[in-house]
Amino acid sequence: MPLEDILRKIEEEAELKKKRILEEARTRASAQLERAQKELKEEADRLLAERRKEVELEVQRRLAQARLAGKNEVGKVKHQAWEKLQESLVAAFVEKIETEGREWCKEFLIQYVVSGDEEVWMAPREAEIWGSGFVKEINEEKNLSLRFGGIAEDIERGFLLRRGGMMVDLSFVSVVEEYIRENERRISALLFEG
């Protein structure tokens, strides 16, 4: 075989080998590129999922904070409403007492008398309005043995009733507070419906 044919054959084989090597390299590169793209997509999806979870947790945390802040505000408003209600009821109660007068106060006090020989303490205002003779009047009208204990400086309006070693608080604020406690569910439903 002539040398030219051998050289051509070697060139052709080298060209085919070169094409095969290039084709294999392209195939490997394409496979590596696909694998790298797949890995990048998976990593991006994983990072996106992690970030989405973080964002969802942050949103939930902020919603919980907002709900709590809202509940705190509602609680403050309810507390203020209760205080305003109590003040209004005490004012209405005192106004009722002052319009009803002496007889109403006698009936109010008598309903809490148990033995009939308790000691009656009066708030400064009641002592000023009714005087110590008020207890004597009740005794004469109801055939009781109540005693005037003195002026109860620690209450603003109303009475204290001492029986034995126990003191019954009949201050007007206390009576209103007791009424509110007893009717709390009904009052709450009226004030805070919806």
Number of helices: 6
Number of extended strands: 4
Helix and strand string, N-terminal first?
HHEHHEEEHH
Largest sheet: 4 strands, mixed
Flag low-confidence runs. Answer: none
Tell me the fraction of residues in β-strands, as a range: 5-15%
Strand order of the largest sheet: 2-1-3-4
* Residue share in helix: over 70%
Mean of all residue-level pLDDT scores: 85
Overall form: rod-shaped
Describe the protein's architecture and organization.
- By secondary structure, this protein is an alpha+beta fold.
- The chain has two domains: 1-99; 101-192, hypothetical protein PF0899 fold, CATH 3.30.2320.
- Helix content is 74%, strand content 11%.
- It has helices spanning 3-100, 102-110, 124-130, 133-142, 172-182, 184-192, and strands spanning 119-122, 147-151, 158-163, 166-171.
- A four-stranded mixed sheet has the order 2-1-3-4.
- Strand 3 (158-163) and strand 4 form a beta hairpin.
- Helix 1 packs across helix 5.
- The longest helix has 98 residues, at 3-100.
Provide a short characterization of the protein structure.
74% of the residues lie in helices and 11% in strands.
Distinctive features:
alpha+beta, 194 residues, 6 helices, hypothetical protein PF0899 fold
List the helices and strands and how they pair.
Elements: H1 3-100, H2 102-110, E1 119-122, H3 124-130, H4 133-142, E2 147-151, E3 158-163, E4 166-171, H5 172-182, H6 184-192
Parallel strand pairs: 1-2
Antiparallel strand pairs: 1-3, 3-4
Helix pairs in contact: 1-5
